[in-house]
Specification:
248 residues, alpha/beta, TIM Barrel, 10 helices, globular
């Protein structure tokens, strides 16, 4: 999964892909390098970030999706926590909603079910701010799995098909560096028969695990660790470096 941030304040590449034509060109480059999904995000969830309104998020997403979706031959995912934003993007042809909030916004379950969308359910705390300000306790592995099971049950009850659910343990959201490293090496623990997505690219755990290494090469190494531990999808900024590492 190639990351296409169209935010001005992303922790890694904020502002680089805000222009729709530049964004489409970059997405096509990622597909050529091996991306099987393009994940478009318009609200930063980095530490210290501020939430944006639905209108602001859509003003960033809609022009990019309008050009991207008709011109790309892989599924487009939208990284959003908001049901109204998801509804608009799915109506434009997006196929996946990647929700760091675990489909908890009122109406999000129903929007995704009605559209027949694929969903990525990620683990985090009650809010993005809380998740970055606190860390989990010693039972974090079971706690994360319990949360994902609970949200999976809610998704199924809302009518989301079982084969359209993807689970993400939420590396970097309210976990210590040691806990994040454990998640990298334990992807299959969270599966319960569903595909697992791992997203550690360019996060702080990368410099902790691979001090002094180029961030993208280190991110590729972490993606390989996640894949070796059972991750079905790795979400990355540098697709080419990751594809090379996964092919070895």
């Amino acid at each position: 999964m190639g990351i296409l941030n169209v935010t001005p304040d992303s922790f890694s590449d904020g502002g680089r892909w805000s222009d729709p034509s530049v964004a489409v060109e970059h997405a096509m480059e990622m597909v050529d390098a091996g991306a099987a999904i393009i994940d478009v995000g318009a609200e930063s969830t980095r530490p210290g970030s501020e939430s944006v309104s639905e209108e602001t998020e859509l003003s960033r997403l809609v022009p990019v999706l309008r050009e991207l979706i008709p011109n790309i031959d892989v599924p487009v995912s939208v990284d959003t926590m908001k049901a109204r934003v998801a509804d608009r993007c799915l109506s434009m042809g997006a196929e996946v909603i990647n929700d760091v909030y675990g489909l908890r916004d009122p109406g999000m379950l129903e929007v995704c079910a009605d559209a027949g969308a694929y969903v990525v359910i990620m683990h985090m705390g009650e809010t993005v701010e809380d998740s970055h300000a606190s860390v989990m306790g010693g039972s974090f592995m079971e706690d994360i799995r319990g949360f994902l099971r609970s949200r999976t049950s809610a998704a199924l009850e809302a009518g989301i098909a079982d084969d359209r659910i993807i689970l993400d343990p939420g590396i970097g959201f309210g976990k210590t560096m040691e806990q994040n490293a454990r998640l990298l090496d334990s992807s299959s623990f969270f599966s319960d028969g569903h595909p697992v997505l791992s997203g550690s690219s360019r996060k702080r755990v990368i410099s902790h695990e691979y001090p002094g290494m180029d961030p993208d090469l280190a991110s590729a190494e972490a993606a390989r660790r996640a894949a070796d531990s059972g991750a079905d999808i790795v979400r990355v900024h540098d697709v080419a470096s990751t594809a090379r590492r996964l092919s070895l």
